[in-house]
Amino acid sequence: MHIPSHFLESSLKRLCEHAGNVIGDIQVSAYLFFKRVILIAMTCAVMTTAEAENVTIHPASPTSLESVVARIEIFNCHYDPSIALKIKQVGSTIRVDFSEQKNCAEIIGPQELVFPVIDIKLGQFPPGVFNVDFFQTYDPTKSNNPQVRLWGSAQFTVTDSYASKVGPFPLVDYTDHWWNPQESGMGFSIMQHPSDRIFAAWFVYNQMGQPIWYTLQPGQWLSSTVYTGPIYKTTGTYLGATYDPNQLVINQVGTGTFRFNNYSSATFTYTIEGVDGTKEITRLPF
After folding, report:
1. What is the pTM of this model?
2. What domain count does the chain have?
3. Half-sphere exposure in the Cβ direction for 55 (13 Å, CA)
4. Which of 95, 124, 158 is the last residue of a domain?
5. What is the rounded average pLDDT of the residues 123-134?
6. The domain containing residue 53 runs over which residues?
7. Which in 6, 67, 73, 158 has the greatest CB count within 10 A?
8. d(C-alpha 209, C-alpha 212), whole Å
């Protein structure tokens, strides 16, 4: 990852220039004066190293079915979480825009000397090489005349997830919360791993009306839209007690099959503890 030298230099300059304001403030107590001077000195020292702010791509070698995340470590006031990020893609170049906090030059305490980690979901991409450019909006003169500059860049390569696969496999990602809007209170949480395997949890109720969970795992794809597998019921330690591994009991209680009709609807058929049934489900809107 590349951090432009002019970015570090300008950041250092703006932070260190604030020292003059601190020294000129005759209303600041001696204790606060020395505290601020020390903080400014520490900040200036930190900002002289490129390692202070950087970006990494996760996973490092993504496939065409995986979501790509950019993880940035950025000086606290250089990113304003109250202003929404803007992400757009043109060809193989992705642009991420973010804003600096308006009071970035005001060192008021040790909480300013941190480099929080921020994860930015970029999305899923086809095979190829992609570049990510990060741009920061800032107002160096605090005169409502914002400027935009390149903060840093990164590159990642997406490999073809289908190239080495054999047998049936899905063509889309069905990960989501699923439900039947006519049966509120019951639903499925489906997680599709990059390996294509599905882990599905079904939250429903028993004969006494008490909540119960079933899980479908690991299963297999019969076609690109049909997934089937065993269903388990698990019991264990009460959440308010010390965990006891001896109380963990996992029993297979049936089988289930998801038939995905399209990207947003599916039919689930099951046999669980002697009960057969069918549920029509859709992705849960938020």
Report:
1. 0.69
2. 2
3. 24
4. 158
5. 95
6. 5-158
7. 158
8. 9
End-to-end CA distance of the chain: 35
Question: 196 and 140: one domain?
Answer: no
pLDDT average, residue stretch 72-95? 89
- Three-state DSSP class for residue 107: coil
Cβ-proximal residues to 90 (8 Å cutoff; 6+ apart), any chain? none
Note the pLDDT of residue 29.
54
> For residue 167, what are the CA distances in angstroms to 113, 173, 195, 227?
53, 17, 13, 13
Residues 140 and 183 in one domain: no
Is residue 84 domain-shared with residue 39, that is, in the same domain?
Answer: yes
**Main-chain dihedrals φ then ψ at residue 51, nearest 5 degrees:** -70, -15
Confidence of residue 79 (pLDDT cuts 50, 70, 90): confident
1 within 8 A of 153, measured Cβ to Cβ: yes
Q: What is the mean pLDDT of residues 260-275?
A: 97
Check whether residue 114 and residue 145 sit in a common domain: yes
Contacts of residue 56, Cβ cutoff 8 Å, sequence gap at least 6: 1, 70, 71, 154
**Do 69 and 22 share a structural domain?**
yes
At 106 the pLDDT is 54
Tell whether 164 is covered by a domain: no
Last residue of a domain, one of 94, 127, 158: 158
What single DSSP character describes residue 60?
S
